[in-house]
Amino acid sequence: MRACRLMAVKSTLAARVDSICGDPSGKTGRSLKDEIHTKIEKWQEPPPAK
């Protein structure tokens, strides 16, 4: 559920940037994608041992 919400938020931001031609190089989209991958990988890590 958290991953779906994260994807929705980031894709909305990417669509807004794309609609105003804010980043023709695509750097913003790639950084958003990298941020999504990083967060999901972090969530999949096992919790620290007590």
UniProtKB/TrEMBL annotation:
Taxonomic superkingdom: Eukaryota
Transmembrane segments: none
InterPro entries in the cross-refs: Nop_C, Nop_dom, Nop_dom_sf, Prp31
Domain Nop, first and last residues per copy: 1-45
Key word Ribonucleoprotein present: yes
Keywords from the UniProt entry: Ribonucleoprotein
A single GO cellular-component term on record: precatalytic spliceosome
GO annotation (BP), single: spliceosomal tri-snRNP complex assembly
Name assigned to this protein: U4/U6 small nuclear ribonucleoprotein Prp31-like isoform
Species: Trifolium medium
